[in-house]
Design brief:
By secondary structure, the chain is α/β, with parallel strands linked by helices. Helix content is 36%, strand content 23%.
Length: 397
């Protein structure tokens, strides 16, 4: 049992509490939240005091690539299609042991940044293995690739082998899902097959969608850098004369997609947002990555007006260099309590986990982060968490 007192406690779903405290029981769930004088002190409970700090729900990162942590600073390509090719080469040169160490470091870096839940996409399984080994919380989406329609069956067989290998690790607080990577790496039959599998087996699904201008040019016009690369490999490319979102709607992927996650969503307009809303899709908003790669700015305000669940994501450190979700909030133009909501309960809602995490409420999981009191200033100073708990267990600090 653990009792934490702080200068300010931010439940998120209730007003901030000055000189507040949180009690976490032996099951790792929140037993009490309130003013310090009201929260009980139980015999034998460990007590921690932070007189100049803010106690928050653990932050929720809705898009990471933890297996790529070791590649920070190693891809200097500026043009996005070339950046993707270089990243693929760097991954091909990485051993399974390096991926394992990289994913573990990524988990620890997330905890140091006050992040207690990640939604990770990867191709190796190393992030899920690291989370399970270290006692983390999150969703791991196993990526599947295959731009050649003739290779759909082979890609699906590979995906199902990976899911069978990883599924024993997927028990609370971890989930396993699937990720058909992006329109420039996934054929039409493979998109349909993965979507059908996810619906049939009730796997969570995440996909990079409407991220770059090159992706839009490929789908809409059959042109641009991705189209050129596919044709150079001997694949037929046809103009779809629509946006990437409309393309996946046409394929049937975005029908009955409730609980699925659209990553980036930069190249969208009003009708696209309507499609995502009607499908029940959430959005992982990655403003720093979008900026670094020159994709543009996702219409966050329009997403929120439409009622789409939206969370913040850091993407990989190959893109942004660090694990600071607070920096994403600043890049998104958010501050104060608005930023805090998106970093916590809104991120949890985007992942379908708002009943378990994202706010400090009795009965919810004891996922907590303590930061210096200046953390909600704009912009927040560079800062690691003073303390991070997952299910009541200290994982950092």
């Amino acid at each position: 049992m653990l009792r934490i007192r702080a200068q300010f406690v931010h439940p998120v779903t209730a007003p901030p509490i000055e000189d507040g405290a949180v009690l976490v029981d032996d099951r790792g769930t929140i037993a009490a939240v309130g003013p310090n004088l009201v929260v009980p002190t139980r015999p034998g409970a460990r007590q921690l005091e932070f007189p100049d700090a803010r106690l928050l729900p653990g932050l929720v990162n809705t898009h990471t690539h933890l297996e790529l942590t070791h590649l920070a600073g190693k891809n200097a390509e500026r043009e996005f299609a070339a950046w993707i090719r270089t990243l693929r080469a760097l991954k091909d040169a990485t051993t399974p042991e390096e991926f394992s160490r990289s994913a573990e470091q990524g988990v620890r870096d997330a905890w140091a940044a006050g992040v207690t839940c990640v939604a990770d996409t990867g191709s190796t399984g190393a992030p899920l293995e690291a989370l399970a080994r270290l006692g983390g919380r999150g969703i791991y989406y196993q990526e599947v690739f295959g731009p050649d329609p003739a290779q759909c069956a082979a890609s699906m067989a590979e995906l199902e082998r990976a899911l069978a290998r990883l599924s024993p690790l997927a028990s609370s607080p971890l989930s396993l899902g699937v990720s058909p990577h992006a329109p420039y790496t996934v054929s039409e039959p493979l998109y349909r097959a993965v979507a059908d599998l996810a619906r049939r087996e009730r796997w969570p699904l995440a996909m990079h969608l409407a991220e770059s201008r090159a992706e839009t040019e490929l789908v809409r016009d059959g042109s641009g850098a991705f189209a050129d690369a596919l044709r150079a490999r001997g694949f037929a490319v046809r103009a779809q004369h629509c946006s990437p979102v409309q393309y996946l709607l046409r394929l049937g992927v975005l029908q009955r997609a409730t609980g699925w996650l659209c990553i980036h969503g930069v190249q969208v307009d009003g009708p696209d947002i309507d499609v995502l809303r009607d499908a029940g899709v959430a959005v992982a908003h990655c403003p720093r990555s979008n900026r670094v790669h020159g994709h543009g700015t996702a219409p966050l305000a329009a997403f929120r007006r439409a009622g789409l669940p939206v969370g913040l994501g850091t993407d990989s450190v190959v893109s942004v260099g660090d694990s600071s979700l607070l920096a994403e909030a600043t890049a998104a133009g958010l501050d104060g309590e608005d930023a805090l909501r998106m970093l916590t309960i809104e991120g949890a809602r985007a992942l379908g986990l708002e009943r378990e995490i994202g706010s400090l409420e009795v009965g919810k999981q004891g996922d907590l982060a303590v930061f210096p009191s200046t953390i909600l200033h704009r912009p927040p100073p560079p800062s690691t968490a003073l303390l991070t708990l997952v299910a009541g267990r200290v994982v950092h600090g």
